[in-house]
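Ticket opened by: R.M.
Priority: normal
Category: complex prediction / small molecule

The reporter submitted a protein together with zinc ion and asked that the result be attached to this ticket for the collaborator who will pick it up next week. Submitted input follows.
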Amino acid sequence: MTIRLDRERLITTMKEQAEYGATEGGGLHRLALSEADREIRDWFVDQLKTAGLSVRIDEFGNIFGRREGIDSDAAPLLVGSHLDSQPNGGIYDGALGVVAALELVRTLNDEEIETARPVEIVNWTNEEGSRFQPAMQGSGVWAGAHDLEQEYAKTDDDGVMLGEALDDIGYRGDVPAEPTTDYEAYLELHVEQGPVLAEAGADIGIVTGIVGFTWGSVTFRGEADHSGPTPMHHRRDALVAAADLITAVRRIPGMLGERTVGTVGYVDAEPNSINIIPEKATVTWGFRDPDDAIVEEAYRRVLAEAEHAAKREGVDFDTEERMRAPAVTFPDQAVDSVRKAAETRDCEYLEMVSGAGHDATHLASVCNTGMVFAPSEGGKSHSPDEYTSWDDCYEAATVLANAALELAADGGTVK
Ligand SMILES: [Zn+2]
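Result attached by the on-call engineer:
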């Protein structure tokens, strides 16, 4: 069996959600647990109720809507993403995944399709990690990667604690923020946020996993001096060593994997004054790759490069790895269902490893997980220029829905 979503309704719903937190330039400003987030959550709960789903909200504000299966004790299929956005972000991002999940259950209702398994759809709290850190927080708490109380205590720039913010918008629910049953699988549709699919002319991406990464920092310590009287050979300039390291981080990926990326996203120099030789400089590194061994190699090389840079300039240095996440490989079952749905649709697809983290990262530790990517025009995202054509939105949502139908066992019996 295949299902056909209502294209116009999908588009209308996408436009409707984009009104909550809309910015003048056509973007979206819907920070986690803000007033705009409260409004979109109210809207979402309304949609769930209208679709006849039973709604539950957990202690961390994750919102679930459940459609019963023939076998209500069977492990449910979970489908969703997130409705929060970056500051002045785009209207597609995670919202497309939540709207597609909504459209899935609406269509099951319209077609009076009974699935063997219950189907649950979800909006995860704070995927973006801009107002409160870390990103993918709601799914991380739910999956057991973070401690609930610790995350409640996280504060935003104004010192507001996350727990208070949840209370302020009325979304601290009473259901435990954890899987209260076994789940059969989790599916998520998200925009790619990179240029790969659009450049390849593919209709959708089948995500087979998520890259691993290492993040850390190097601090060089030299000597502050007057920039006039100090001859060049007398200098121990921390910022020069840092500059060497920045170009090394740029070079390292080229020596490793085809998909390795490396970034220095942060620089701090002291005293940061035009007339003083920098005494202290800190730079960060970030390397990502689908292969953990390559991530480890990038880490080894950045430490070696830091040592060379320090030696050349005669400065001291120390390093700190701040975070390391292993690559995630989605198990076959959910990925196979997505592939089958794509083949049935006869659409052009590309199998790929996601270069960005998603809620699916955490879900992969709970159950079978699969993701569908919709192309991002120009690879742009987290900006009002983010764009995915309605055709591409519809295609990706349709593949998601058909993969979901298979995983939820539309034949009426649980395999
Ligand atoms: Zn997102």
